[in-house]
Design a protein that fits this description.
The chain is mostly helical. The protein has a three-stranded mixed β-sheet.
């Protein structure tokens, strides 16, 4: 059992993005080419992925993690690439934050989309985990730079959104690696 003081400390501790990347890398090491089978990884981790609708909140919720029942709920009406990001993000919470939220589910917020970006350290960790799970550095590096094609082509290869690929190429959701300089990034976007 975790004490209330330990929980509050865990929730407010600075994000450990290096740990998030390392945990994602541990799950993707056996895959030699994109796309990464995120659903398969979740199932191998003992988590059942459930595609659902959320009633009046369906347009506001992408998904959430049910720690007590080992389930990830994903919005059935989202686009497939959005669903993959949601699965990866919630899997990050499962792997990195289960010890915090299992005994204290009321501390796990279901965040509404289109609200201001969360500054929560645990959300930043889950985003970083998802980015590296979907687009591992070791699979992206051989493709950048230079590459014949565009950011959209890379997004298609990894089955992620163009926005997600842009974030990764610019070094976002990352732990100390940037794949492209500004000049090369503009070239890929053309």
């Amino acid at each position: 059992m975790t004490t209330e003081g330990n929980i509050e400390h865990s929730l407010k501790a600075p994000p450990d993005l290096k740990m998030a990347k390392r945990k994602a890398d541990q799950l993707t090491w056996l895959y030699s080419a994109p796309p990464i089978p995120v659903m398969e990884i979740a199932e191998m981790e003992g988590i059942h992925v459930v595609f659902a609708t959320f009633g009046d909140y369906n347009d506001k919720i992408a998904g959430y993690c049910d720690f007590k029942n080992s389930k990830l709920y994903v919005n059935a009406e989202d686009r497939p690439r959005r669903q993959l990001f949601t699965i990866a993000h919630e899997l990050g919470h499962w792997i990195m934050h289960q010890n915090i939220f299992s005994d204290n589910p009321d501390k796990y917020p279901v965040l509404l989309r289109f609200s201001k970006p969360s500054s929560s350290p645990r959300e930043r960790e889950a985003d970083t985990f998802a980015a590296h799970l979907l687009i591992p550095d070791r699979l992206l590096k051989p493709l950048t730079p230079p590459i014949e094609g565009t950011v959209a082509l890379l997004a298609d290869i990894f089955l992620v959104s163009v926005t997600m690929m842009e974030i990764r190429l610019r070094g976002g959701y990352d732990y100390r690696s940037t794949f492209l300089g500004r000049r090369n990034f503009r070239h890929l976007c053309q």
